[in-house]
Amino acid sequence: MAASTTLGKSNSSDARRFFHFDGRVVSVIHKLEDATLKRSAARQASSLLAWDMLCDLVADVAKGNDATCLKDEDDRPWAEIAGHRHGASISHSRGWVVVAVAVDPGLLIGIDLEYRDEGRSIPQMAEQLGLPRATSVSDFYDAWCRYEAIFKATGESDPVVQLDLSSVVLPVPADFASSLVMLDAG
Q1: Taking all residues of the chain, what is their mean pLDDT, rounded to a whole number?
Q2: Could you say which of 13, 82, 153, 154 would form a disulfide bridge with 65 (CB–CB 3.0 to 4.6 Å)?
Q3: Would you say 87 and 98 are in contact if contact means Cβ atoms under 8 Å apart?
């Protein structure tokens, strides 16, 4: 899948917000402001912020049409815009939140953002993705984000089946990995 990416600052005075637009998907990344929150409180705040950001982004994409943020039976977000289903996705890690909405109806999307934590047990986790135990931290997180984004878009959890699908890397802070997957539903 060929994809071009454009990164630019939003029109708001909040310089931590960025937009990615490739013609089919719009995404926003934002840094949670309160760095003093404990881990569980930060996760809850990130989840609430992500949902609010997603609904704001859906309203922007809707351009005045009726729009609603919803969750399916598996708790995955999606948007209804002017009576059509649009893909949507949320991810957050270490105080950063990223959300994405499909501009076109019928487009499945998934997004993932992960902090590159060198303290995690990478060899065992790499094996779960079918990667060699000696996979580097950077390569592991790139593969993990791709896996998670594909799962969020499709529900497919088999890494072998996922090999045929492609993804786009989003511009994120240096210590993070990201992936955006777009698939036509039909």
Answers
A1: 84
A2: 82
A3: no
